[in-house]
Amino acid sequence: MENHRPPNVYPHRTRLHHATILRRNKVLASAYNRVGSRTRGCGYSEFTIHAEKNAIKSLGDLSKLRGATLIVVQYGKDGELMQSKPCHDCTLFLEKCMREHGLRKVIYS
């Protein structure tokens, strides 16, 4: 993955997660963690929608996940690459995507 610095979209936050869905070296979807909204139908009960779910939601058609790879990276406030790992809910969600929709691999920084 090329050296990618995230935009300064959340200057008050200390961490930013970015998720990209790839298949055959083509970017299918890309998204950051963001503040969610039940009225916009994100279906998320917390204050944010995690980058993994945001990218998959932006993909639209879940059949596009078949054979795809999801890459999730975490950036610090100054844009430095940090270690990332999924929360419990995202782990369950991604396991379901692998099992039911053919998501091939998930990689975390």
TrEMBL record:
Signal peptide: none
UniProt-listed PROSITE patterns: CYT_DCMP_DEAMINASES_1
Matching InterPro entries: APOBEC/CMP_deaminase_Zn-bd (IPR016192), CMP_dCMP_dom (IPR002125), Cytidine_deaminase-like (IPR016193)
GO molecular function: hydrolase activity; zinc ion binding
CMP/dCMP-type deaminase domain segment(s): 19-97
Keywords: Metal-binding, Zinc
Protein name: CMP/dCMP-type deaminase domain-containing protein
